[in-house]
Amino acid sequence: MQTIFSGIQPSGIPTIGNYIGAMKQFVALQEDYNSYYCIVDEHAITMPQDRLKLREQIKSLAALYLAIGLDPEKSIIFIQSEVSAHAEAAWIVQCNTSLGELERMTQFKDKSLKNKRAGVSAGLLTYPPLMVADIILYQTDLVPVGDDQKQHLELTRDFVERFNNKYSSGQPILTLPEVKIPEEGGRIMSLQEPTKKMSKSDKNAKSFISMLDEPSIIRKKFKSAVTDSSGIIEYDPINKPGISNLLVIFSAFSGQSIDSLVTMYTGKGYGEFKDELATAVIAVMEPIQQRHAELLKSDELDLILDQGAESARKVANKTLQKMKNAVGLGRKS
Ligand code: ATP
Ligand code: MG
Question: What positions carry the motif 'KMSKS' region (predicted)?
Answer without folding.
Answer: 197-201
